[in-house]
Automatic annotation (TrEMBL):
Gene Ontology molecular function terms on file: oxidoreductase activity, acting on the CH-OH group of donors, NAD or NADP as acceptor; quinone binding
InterPro entries for the chain: NAD(P)-bd_dom_sf (IPR036291), Sc_DH/Rdtase_CS (IPR020904), SDR_fam (IPR002347)
Descriptive protein name: Short-chain dehydrogenase/reductase SDR
Family that this chain belongs to: Belongs to the short-chain dehydrogenases/reductases (SDR) family.
Highest rank taxon of the organism: Eukaryota
Annotated Gene3D superfamilies: NAD(P)-binding Rossmann-like Domain (3.40.50.720)
Presence of the UniProt keyword Oxidoreductase in the record: yes
Classification lineage: Eukaryota, Fungi, Dikarya, Basidiomycota, Agaricomycotina
A matching Pfam family: adh_short
Keywords of this entry: NADP, Oxidoreductase
GO biological process, one term: fatty acid biosynthetic process
Amino acid sequence: MANRLSQVSGHVTNTYGRGLLAGEVAIITGAGQGIGRATALLFAKEGAKVVISDIDAKRLEDVEQEIKAAGGQVLSVAGDVGADSFPKLIVDATVNKWGKINHIINNAGFTFDKMLHTTPDETFDIIMKIHVRAPFRLIRQAAPYFRVKPDQRENRSIINVSSTSGLHGNVGQANYASAKAAVIGLTKTIAKEWGPFGVRANTVAFGLIHTRLTAAKEAGVTIEIDGKKVALGVPGAKGPTEAPSPDAYSFIPLRRGGTPEDAAGSVLFLCSPLASYVSGHTLEVTGGVGI
């Protein structure tokens, strides 16, 4: 892959645009930090024109400037993916700017953990809204740009982010596990319905990736949803540099948690021509957990 910055006669030469996604347009939600940010940066390096979105406008602006500074092409559309107006807003902005859509990466989301018997309806419903309903509505809004005539086909794909919680369940995550299982069914349906148009649809089920969702809950990180503060993180969790012993990740064959960059690489693979005959698949990115 030749898309990197190289020095010629003391000057930095930009070689963006010659990568695996050269000239393609990708919408990435939840791109203000973590996996979404890493995916946006990697896609831009690989020549994609990226449309990034996040509910945190300031973080989104920082990622936009980071991509531009490296010579990438980017459009920011801040907003709440769960809002009724959001799908039309981002699809119209994307098409008005670049005339097409090649990829949608439904990455935005958060956890709202409670034991099943103490989970109120609204706590269950908001997770389903953001992780299932929002991706469904965005994909549906973009349908005219995916269901195209054979002579207009390019590399096109849908990536929905799931989790090992959606594959195996998880204590305290009845809402999150249900939502992440649901997007797998959604993805497989898209693969069957849109396959005849040359569209691929795949799911990525992440294991332990070091982000704010898997950091220590004691750090006090919160987000505001519908006017309520939601605490993020896992009680007592250790970050990648805080392992208390060599056995801290003994449950992971690779003996470490994943980085956002690890996660982004798997998304790039599924969107790229390298996965041109992969559709309806759920790629487990876990460091070997669950084998």
